[in-house]
């Protein structure tokens, strides 16, 4: 169970906010038990997207007249504060990952016009790579260790559904055999990805549209390594 779920479970256990009150239950709580209790109920409702009467459906009015209810309210506010702290920490982590993703993509873009594609080669000194040695090199610049080989990289990190792709994710696709991973690139956002490839007049680092008919039908999976 993640931290957010633990905190919400704490809120549920600590507050036990559920009664049937004939009218304006949150206002009633405020009048009867003060702003602390009222704020606790309001925040609980917001977090769970409930209205007054959905929250108050188990306990009776007498429960709220219990001397211990304000204690429950105080415990609720503590839990809500903890939830806010977790949310802030998550936001900070997300910002850090996003910044690192931007740096990875910037590094990949900086190699446009410098890298030459050669299947089966991994030579940073001459900037000669295949698709997976290129991603290995770029992520390695930022402290992320990837194996060499698109199939090997497709087993690193964690699975990401196509609809949940974000900047810095590795995307994998077929080349000549449908369903067989033979190519890898770095997702840039907005349906674009950057990869080292050859074919036609292209040889080297290229930005392509993942949603094009060519790449969309070749797409197989994605992994998150940041």
In terms of per-residue confidence, which ranges show pLDDT below 50 for 5 or more consecutive residues? 4-26, 57-66, 68-72
Overall outline: globular
Helix and strand sequence: HHHHHHEEEHHEEEEEHE
User: Gyration radius, to the nearest Å?
Assistant: 26 Å
Helix content class: 40-55%
Counted beta strands: 9
The DSSP helix count reads: 9
Assembly type: single chain
What is the strand content?
Answer: 15-25%
Distance between termini? Answer: 22 Å
The largest pleated sheet is described as: 6 strands, antiparallel
Mean pLDDT: 77
- Supply the helix-strand structural class: alpha+beta
Strand order of the largest sheet: 4-9-5-6-7-8
Note down, in words, how this protein is organized.
With 226 residues, the chain is of the alpha+beta class. The chain is 47% helix and 18% strand. It is built from nine helices and nine strands. It has helices spanning 3-15, 25-33, 35-48, 52-55, 61-65, 69-110, 131-140, 150-153, 213-218, and strands spanning 116-117, 122-123, 128-129, 158-159, 170-173, 183-189, 192-199, 202-209, 219-224. The strands form two sheets. A six-stranded antiparallel sheet has the order 4-9-5-6-7-8. It has a three-stranded mixed sheet with strand order 1-3-2. The longest helix is centred in the middle third of the chain and has 42 residues, at 69-110. The two termini are 22 Å apart. Residues 4-26, 57-66 and 68-72 have low confidence and may be disordered.
């Amino acid at each position: 169970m993640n931290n957010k779920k633990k905190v919400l479970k704490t809120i549920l256990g600590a507050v036990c906010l559920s009664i049937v009150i004939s009218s304006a239950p949150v206002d009633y709580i405020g009048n009867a038990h003060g702003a602390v209790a009222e704020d606790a109920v309001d925040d609980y409702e917001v977090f769970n997207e409930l209205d007054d009467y959905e929250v108050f459906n188990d306990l009776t009015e007498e429960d709220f007249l219990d001397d211990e209810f304000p204690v429950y309210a105080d415990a609720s506010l503590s839990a809500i504060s903890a939830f806010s702290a977790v949310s802030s920490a998550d936001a900070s982590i997300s910002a850090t990952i996003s910044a690192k993703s931007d740096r990875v993509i910037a590094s990949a873009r900086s190699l446009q016009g410098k890298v030459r594609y050669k299947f089966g080669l991994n030579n940073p000194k001459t900037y000669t790579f295949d698709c997976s040695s290129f991603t290995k090199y770029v992520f390695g610049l930022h402290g992320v260790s990837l194996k060499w080989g698109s199939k090997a990289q497709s087993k690193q990190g964690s699975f990401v559904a196509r609809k949940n792709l974000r900047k810095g994710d590795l995307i994998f696709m077929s080349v000549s055999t449908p369903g067989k991973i033979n190519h890898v690139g770095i997702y840039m956002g907005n349906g674009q990805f950057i990869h080292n490839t050859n074919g036609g007049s292209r040889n080297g680092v290229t930005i392509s549209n993942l949603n094009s008919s060519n790449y969309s039908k070749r797409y197989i999976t994605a992994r998150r390594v940041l």
